[in-house]
Amino acid sequence: MRRYPPPRRVTSPAGLKWPGLSTAQSLAVASQFGLSLAVAVGLGLVGGQWLDGQAHTGLLFTLIGVLAGLILGVSSIVALYRATLRSSERESRGTSQPNGERAE
Questions:
Q1: How far apart are CA 11 and CA 31, in angstroms?
Q2: How far apart are CA 20 and CA 26, in angstroms?
Q3: d(CA 20, CA 11)
Q4: pTM of this prediction?
Q5: How do the domains of the chain map onto residue ranges?
Q6: Cα dist. 98→49, 73, 75, 85, 86 in Å?
Q7: What is the pLDDT of residues 14-72, one digit of tens each?
Q8: CB–CB of 60/52 below 8 Å?
């Protein structure tokens, strides 16, 4: 019976190891992405429709609200993505503090 070597960690072309996330962490981050975007766009839609009803402006504020919600949702997703990368890199280096000190 042939023996296969254990799987290696994914490395970049420069040889740097990717810290990676567990399956549960990946699912949590993906659901947070979708939820952040849906809530931001939904609030923009509802707020815009309410303003349109008050000002009798047709769809003007609804479109502005949806666009603003989309922009805020995407910026929230980018911030979450960057924070997730920072924390996974700290875990791969064995540090738990943001300044790079090892936890005792």
A1: 26
A2: 9
A3: 10
A4: 0.66
A5: 34-93
A6: 42, 25, 22, 12, 9
A7: 555 555 677 888 888 889 999 999 999 999 999 999 999 999 999 999 999 999 999 99
A8: yes
